[in-house]
Design brief:
The protein is an all-alpha fold and 407 residues long. The protein has helices at residues 4-24, 30-37, 41-68, 71-90, 95-124, 129-158, 160-182, 197-203, 217-220, 224-240, 246-252, 257-282, 286-305, 311-327, 330-340, 345-373, 376-399. 79% of the residues lie in helices and 0% in strands. Mean pLDDT is 87; it is low at 204-210.
């Protein structure tokens, strides 16, 4: 077995546990913690916005460090820091302490979410890249499905402090040591070529199958297509945060809370299936992947707009919308790789990931303000327009892919 698949396991651990706990399980704590601290849910939830802001500010430096330093030390170190932060949250008694914790978590998320698996998979694989990115990205949703019920049980029986403490211990005692033990920066550390490079080398009479190729960072920053992908990332992330409002929208249509939970679960199912499918599609055509994720998302939002026809419309719409949600990580990463190659991938993707973090920070609260002054139908229509723009940008970016100036 190629050692690259051990790297995939490490990436799945980071996404399934570290990111699954910090993002997918965050909502389960909102009500009990805010009640205990005597603040509103909105005031407590500011720590998540601060996490996005801190990630945005950290990403340029994180990209440089990942490209020039040891990914093994950086990822294991940030995993340990995340675990310690969860332990600190378990002992926090003031809301400002959670704000500080959110800033620290944002620093770790810049490495563990935005740069970990895109950078490592691009280094270790030249075939099956899309599929494996989909697998790693899907692990965060699976982690949420596994740990949300566990966290709910611990909170109910022992309190939220024990749940945070358990998260911290799990990260420090399990994930961090495994990353430190198993991660390697590049295939050359194990005396290997990237997976699939030998076949490429044979097909080209033995020439340079394992060499990095692509657009240098300095040149990429001057190219219009670079900033087109920044807009793509921002719009995709902003649109994905509409997921936060689907349960309330379904209940406003007159359906029960249980039926609304079916729509929310359908979104998560669409995210998981979509990430795996988009990875497979992108291995064949990045253009097709861009169209599938955006067109499916548009169809899902249109079905949600017509959700009053029956709960099946909202459930089906949620599932299709999940495919657009899946495209945030999978399609953005694959477009970056397709257009710019893997020569300066970490630094280029770090810049594009800043748009992901900024989109999450602005839209997660911004949609709520817009809903208060308009309606759910209005923000879903805006989402349709945004996804249509993303489809156009994806078509343009793939068509503008440089070919003669790579190194």
């Amino acid at each position: 077995m190629h050692y690259g698949f051990v790297i995939v396991v490490c990436c799945c651990l980071m996404m399934g546990i570290n990111i699954g706990l910090s993002f997918s399980c965050a909502g389960i704590f909102y009500r009990p913690v805010s009640t205990d601290l005597g603040v509103s849910v909105g005031a407590f939830g500011i720590y998540m916005s601060l996490m996005y802001v801190a990630s945005t500010l950290m990403l340029p430096l994180a990209g440089k460090l990942m490209e020039r330093g040891s990914a093994r030390r950086l990822l294991a170190g940030n995993s340990a820091l995340m675990g310690l932060t969860f332990l600190a949250m378990s002992a926090s008694t003031q809301v400002w302490q959670f704000y500080a914790a959110g800033c620290v978590l944002g620093v770790t998320v810049a490495f563990l979410l935005y740069l970990s698996f895109p950078t490592l998979i691009n280094r270790w694989f030249v075939s099956k890249v899309g599929l494996l990115m989909g697998v790693c990205s899907a692990a965060s949703g699976i982690g949420g499905m596994v740990f949300n019920p566990i966290a709910a049980s611990v909170i109910t029986n022992y309190g939220w402090r024990w749940a945070y403490a358990g998260f911290g211990v799990l990260i420090i005692a399990v994930v961090t040591p495994l990353l430190a033990l198993l991660l390697r920066d590049r295939p050359s550390d194990k005396g290997l070529l990237p997976y699939g490079a030998d076949k490429i080398a044979q097909a080209s009479d033995g020439g340079g199958g394992g060499a990095a190729s692509g657009i240098p960072y300095e040149r990429a920053m001057k190219m219009p297509v670079m900033w087109g992908l920044v807009v793509f990332a921002f719009l995709m992330m902003a649109c994905s945060t509409l997921n936060l409002f689907i349960p309330n929208y379904v209940t406003d249509l007159g359906f029960t809370l249980e039926q609304a939970s079916l729509a929310a679960a359908a979104v998560m199912a669409g995210v998981t299936v979509g990430k795996l499918a988009l990875g497979h599609i992108n291995d064949r055509s990045c253009l097709a992947g861009s169209l599938v994720t955006t067109v499916a998302g548009i169809g899902g939002l249109l079905m949600l707009i017509g959700g009053s026809a029956g709960i099946w419309m909202s459930v089906g719409g949620g599932f299709l919308f999940g495919w657009a949600y899946a495209g945030v990580t999978v399609q953005t990463a694959m477009l970056t790789r397709t257009v710019f190659g893997n020569l300066s991938y970490a630094r280029i993707y770090a810049v594009i990931s800043m748009a992901l973090a900024a989109g999450g920070a602005l839209a997660s609260g911004g949609w709520g303000i817009i809903v208060d002054h308009t309606s759910y139908h209005f923000i879903f229509i805006v989402g349709v327009v945004m996804l249509a723009l993303c489809a156009a940008i994806g078509l343009w970016a793939v068509g503008r892919k440089p070919s003669g100036d790579r190194v």
